[in-house]
Amino acid sequence: MGKPGKGGKGKGDKGGKGVKGKGKGKGKGKGKDGKGKGKGKGGKGPAKVIIEPHRMEGIFIAKGRDDSLVTKNMAPGVSVYGEKRITGDSGEGEKTEYRVWNPFRSKLGALIVGGIDTMPIRPGSKVLYLGAASGTTVSHVSDMVGPEGMVYAVEFSHRSGRDLTNMAKKRPNVVPIIEDARQPLKYRMLVGSVDVIFADVAQPDQARIVTLNAHMFLKNGGWFIISIKANCVDSTAKPEAVYASEINKLKLEKCKPKEQLTLEPYHRDHAVVTGIYRPLKKKKEA
Ligand code: SAM
After folding, report:
1. CA nearest ligand 1 atom 10, residue
2. What's the pLDDT score for residue 90?
3. How is 18-75 classified by DSSP, letter by letter?
4. What is the dihedral of CA 12, 14, 15, 17, to 10 degrees?
5. Which of 83, 99, 105, 156 to mutate to test the pocket of ligand 1 (most atoms within 8 A of CB)?
6. Ligand 1 nearest-atom number relative to CA 108
7. Considering 31, 222, 232, 240, which has the largest number of Cβ atoms within 10 A of its Cβ?
């Protein structure tokens, strides 16, 4: 996967009870910018390679000297941010186009390469994505959820929102929403109940932004995934202390953490926490 080294297990941050801590890999290896050689970059014709399914649904691996994470292109023939496109053969002569996903440019990509256990975003999922920017990661989420799924992508910067909106024109499963994620009432008519909230807003009040949106849109038993940029919350505290404090805020609002992963070597001093909103009680067997 560009092979800078997996995020790696170990150094579980003390995020609180019931949170699996992983992360802080050393990051040895080649291809640290995640860029691969070969044809098919940007507008050029896609290169042909062997594609294997990843253990997570909706994600694939392009085999090569350096394996890369790829998603099935929902808009064949189009790159979103200059990423390489490749054609895979299913073995039955059917050709499918994939896009290379660079974990250095995406917290979600880094989370997958880093070895998160459970990925709640899968084909058919309805996802509320907070902090969509120009749509780099949103486009891969759009590929992951496929034609049966939906991505509601919230971004408050009008400049980034323009690129996001243009990208969504070619992807019927992306609804761009140019609003402040602190005001979910403003977009409640566009978003129904969702299975997953993904948040990458890099704001000091990011935990509050997630819980506000969870109370309004996330179904009971649905998942949240939050990227926490430590120095955005408190630049004077140790990152581990910041992660623990953010996790406590989530717990107070019925968001039960399940896994925690630091994103090194892809993103410094970032952690991602995944968990379940209002977990459903297991039925007792009669
Ligand atoms: N997730 C993006 C990706 O992987 O391509 C990168 C997101 S960037 C780190 C954070 C984004 O969140 C910025 O584009 C910023 O404008 C947006 N943002 C920050 N606060 C926001 C808010 N309150 N509402 C909506 N968007 C916000």
Report:
1. 201
2. 55
3. T-EEE------SS-TT----SS--TTSPPEEE-EEE-SSTT-EEE-SSS-EEEEE-SS
4. 100
5. 156
6. 4
7. 222
